[in-house]
């Protein structure tokens, strides 16, 4: 009986030691993700909340209509918006088309759910599941009107067409795109490269 008690104590101590060593190893494991470095253009001064791996999904009729993710989000209560770093927005159209926008920086307004991408942090790129690509200095999403817009230079490329201009308003499904100034269009026969 005495040996059984000693064996149980030894076994319990061995299990606790193994668990402690495992936890210490996992905490110190070098493969952990490091915090995303913040660029100089995105100051952390005054940020009340900082979230790494930020994600927001907007649902309509039990379907995700668009999602926004960022490597880092910084928020202040008095601004009512989040400043984002390394962000990606994905819009799911009713007809199955998907738009993916990528930018180095931008903002997300909590109340209106408006998104601004770009604006001095590098170009915004957009790719659509139907083969179009778009590049702009900045793009804004208006969640009420369901439109993407910019007042700056924009380039749209498809398999058979290239469009350039300044200023644009487009529906999220790209079925209606209006470029407001300096439009230049190049058509390519048969959808082949230049």
Main features:
single chain; about 190 residues; mainly beta; lipopolysaccharide transport protein A fold; 2 domains; 1 helix; 11 strands; globular
- Strand portion: over 45%
> Per CATH, what is the topology of the largest domain?
lipopolysaccharide transport protein A fold
Domain count: 2
Q: Could you give the distance between the termini?
A: 88 Å
How large, in whole angstroms, is the Cα Rg? 25 Å
Can you count the helices? 1
What do the pLDDT scores average to?
Answer: 79
Description:
The chain has 194 residues and is mainly beta. The protein folds into 2 domains: 1-32; 49-191, lipopolysaccharide transport protein A fold (Sandwich), CATH 2.60.450. It has one helix at 2-28, and strands at 49-60, 63-76, 81-92, 98-109, 115-118, 124-128, 133-136, 138-142, 147-157, 161-171, 177-187. A hairpin with a 3-residue loop joins strand 9 (147-157) and strand 10. The chain is globular, with a radius of gyration of 25 Å.
Per-chain topology:
Elements lengths: L1 H27 L20 E12 L2 E14 L4 E12 L5 E12 L5 E4 L5 E5 L4 E4 L1 E5 L4 E11 L3 E11 L5 E11 L7
Antiparallel strand pairs: 1-2, 2-3, 3-4, 4-5, 4-6, 5-8, 6-7, 7-9, 8-9, 9-10, 10-11
Quick structural overview:
This protein is mainly beta and 194 residues long.
């Amino acid at each position: 009986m005495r040996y059984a008690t000693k064996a149980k104590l030894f076994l319990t101590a061995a299990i606790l030691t193994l668990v402690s060593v495992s936890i210490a190893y996992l905490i110190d494991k070098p493969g952990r993700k490091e915090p995303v470095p913040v660029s100089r253009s995105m100051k952390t001064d005054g940020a009340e909340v900082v979230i790494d791996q930020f994600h927001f999904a907007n649902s309509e009729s039990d379907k995700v209509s668009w999602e926004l993710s960022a490597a880092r989000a910084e928020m202040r209560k008095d601004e009512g918006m989040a400043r984002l770093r390394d962000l990606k927005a994905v819009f799911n159209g009713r007809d199955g088309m998907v738009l993916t926008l990528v930018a180095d920086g931008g903002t997300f307004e909590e109340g209106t759910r408006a998104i601004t991408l770009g604006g001095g942090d590098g170009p915004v790129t957009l790719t659509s599941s139907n083969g179009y690509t778009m590049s702009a200095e900045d793009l804004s999403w208006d969640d009420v009107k369901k439109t993407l817009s910019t007042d700056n230079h924009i380039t749209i490329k498809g398999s058979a067409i290239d469009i350039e201009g300044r200023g644009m308003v487009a529906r999220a499904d790209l079925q209606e795109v209006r470029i407001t100034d300096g439009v230049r269009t190049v058509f390519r026969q048969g959808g082949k490269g230049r």
